[in-house]
Specification:
197 residues; 7 helices; two-stranded antiparallel ribbon; 52% helix
Length: 197
């Protein structure tokens, strides 16, 4: 072994971690995880035999097959949220419906644990939205420039103050002469700073 081996393994671990982080950021990861984990207790408890000292407790009910189907469907929906994130809304609504059905069918939703996990996963899947990719060449200063939506005011070029579509600039009597005032600026001053029209 050489002295460089730990550095290479740390680099590999860091690369894998960053790759997983990038993969996780493009899909509803936590929604899929909670939904998947919610299906496990719902499917497990009807078939489990719990030991309490010398006493064994079995939750054998007639709804064992229903519990297994609901649990497997929730696990499948969790994996669907990870690998087919375009269907996240359908998968989230289906997870919520299956969690509600598990209250009646599967021992109070896997002793409420599976119910809560599946409900949380379904809600996260429905509310998740993909992030908008950055434009190529966009620097950190472009994000700080302010809103760029429909209602955002853009700065006007020099000499365009007072033209229709240009932002309002307050009149300073000390620096602006009467020739600098346009009818729109005068109307804006008379309306408390708001432009009309």
């Amino acid at each position: 072994m050489s002295a460089e081996t730990p550095v290479q393994s740390a680099g590999t671990f860091a690369r894998l971690r960053l790759r997983f982080r990038a993969w996780r950021g493009t899909r509803p990861f936590w929604a899929g995880l909670f939904t998947l984990l919610g299906g496990v207790p719902i499917a497990y408890f009807p078939y489990a035999t719990l030991k309490l000292g010398t006493m064994s407790v079995a939750m054998a009910t007639t709804a064992g097959a229903g519990s297994l189907i609901i649990g497997v469907l929730l696990v499948t929906l969790g994996l669907t949220m990870w690998f087919q994130h375009a269907t996240r809304v359908f998968a989230g609504v289906a997870a919520i419906v299956l969690a509600l059905v598990s209250l009646v069918v599967s021992n109070i939703g896997g002793f409420v644990i599976g119910f809560l996990l599946a409900m949380l996963g379904g809600a996260l899947a429905v509310s998740w939205a993909p992030g908008k990719p950055k434009a190529e060449g966009a620097g950190p200063h472009e994000a700080e420039q302010g809103p760029s939506s429909e209602g955002a005011v853009e700065t006007a070029p020099d000499g365009a103050v007072g033209e229709p579509g240009a932002p309002y600039h307050a009149h300073d009597p000390a620096t602006d002469g009467p020739a600098d005032r346009t009818p729109e600026a005068a109307a804006a001053d008379s309306n408390g700073g708001y432009r009309v029209g």
